[in-house]
Each structure stands twice: as structure tokens, then as C-alpha cells.
Amino acid sequence: MIAVLRSELHRSLTIRSSWIALAGFATLAALTGWLSEEFWTLFAGLGAFGIAIMITAQHYQHRTAILVFLGQPHRLLVFAAQCVVSVLFALVLAAVSGVAVAGGGYGSEYLSTLAVVPLIAVFGAANATIVRHPLWLFAGYLGWLLFAEGLIGRLEEPLPFTSFLYASTGDSRFLLSLLAWTAASLPLAAWSIRRDVAAG
């Protein structure tokens, strides 16, 4: 497991698109943090979700998954390592982008968001393992956030990103909902990672 984790971490740190995505998401979250802590929380969550998708889906996008699975035939270990690396990147993104929020007197919101970020990162990694196409995921979840959660749910229903928002304020009902969304995605990802890599 340590070797797989080291390999995934090294790969994520040496691919330019990972750094570009991390910098882009962190900058966007930091800029929104000047508006309000709620905006920062939303964009930190979206950034954590997005960076997890980038880290996980790159193997399928660049067709390196075949080599990874030849080197480590236990694909669940690879998925676990990708989840850990996604969580690490997501925590760095949230911690750095939220400095203005923490310094502006919202330390408790900052810390509670950091505590929930790993869940949305694992949810993102699982989704990327299932769908394998980052652009499909980004487009699909942008529409989902705008229409299903925003217009229809009015950011009040226990859907994934709404659950993240309210869980980061300490609302236990939405924390349980986010845990349920993440837990439900894991068996699907565990099944999906066994699919033929060439079929994408």
C-alpha cells in the first residue's frame, strides 16, 4: 500500500495539470473567500471535488491505468491510494485558500470545513472511478448543482453539495447525508474499477 501511495503522490505532484487545477481551484476559492465564508466553503468543496476528479481520472484519460494495474493488480489498493492523495490535495487547497476566512474571524467555520473536505474529495474520487471522463463529470455536476440542487432543491435538500455546505457548519443531519452519499459511491467505484480499462 505504501508503494502505491508513494507512486500516486509522485505522479500527482509531477503532472503539470494537477498543479494548474490545484492553483486554479485554490485561487477561485480564495477570491470568493473575500466575499463571504459561505462562498469560500462552497468553492472549497467544489475545488476539493474537482481536484479529486482530476487526480483519479488522469489515469483513464491518459491511458496510464493499464500500466498502473499491471504494476499493482489489486485495483482496490490503487483506488484507496487515489482517495488518500485526493484528500491530501483537497486539504491543501482548502487550507491555503481559506486563510482570509480564518483571518477574518471565521476560524470555527474554517476548521469545520477542513474537517468535511475529505468526504467530498473521496466522493469525487469515487465518481471519477465510475465515470472515468472528467469533462463529463464537470459538465454533469455543474448542471446538477445549478438545476437539481439550486433551482429545484433550493440548496435545502440533503443532496451532495448542499450536504457539504451544511455539514461544514456542523449540521449533523447534513453530515450524515454527506456520509451516506460518499458511502453509496464507494461500492459502485469498487465495482467500476474492475471494468476493462481499454473500454474506458
From TrEMBL:
Asked if the keyword Transmembrane belongs to this entry, the reply reads yes
User: Which superkingdom?
Assistant: Bacteria
Give the keywords, sorted: Membrane, Transmembrane, Transmembrane helix
TM segment ranges:
12-33, 39-57, 77-104, 110-128, 135-154, 174-193
Protein name listed in UniProt: ABC-2 family transporter
Q: Name the source organism.
A: Actinoplanes lutulentus
